[in-house]
Amino acid sequence: MPASFEPNQPTVRLLAALKESGQPVFEEVPVEVLGPNRYRLLASPGILDGLAAGDTFTVDPLSNLYRVHEHGGNLCVQVWYPGLDLAGRVDAELVPAVTGMGGILDGREQELSSFTIPLTAGMAAIERLFNDWVDHVDGATWSFGNAYEEDGVTPLAWLAGAKATG
Prior knowledge:
Helices cover 22% and strands 34% of the residues. It is an alpha+beta fold.
């Protein structure tokens, strides 16, 4: 079951991407307000890259761009299954395994599920779980939302630092 929040839960709208047309795509995320334009993310995003639950960040109110100030030690995992109705399989197969790693299902849209998993669960174990799952589900893919540069190989600075000290 996805994380639940109060009906009046504060949220912020962040720029997630630009379409080919140049039109912005936003994602609204639940937050704890820490100060003026400063927040702690309460659930990992579904389409936005660079953040996971527990991260603290500031937002430029004009551009909706964010800047991370402190990483919370969690990985955001985004699983896509376009055109497929896989919520039942996600709940039956992925949620128990993620929970066993200390993680949680944060949200779900029609063709997407997002998870928060502590880095302490181990990158290899997380990768193994999601690779095995998508190997058995035609049309499904997954990625870390906050671990690698756009090339998909180079670890973000926070992750490289965490791996070096962990």
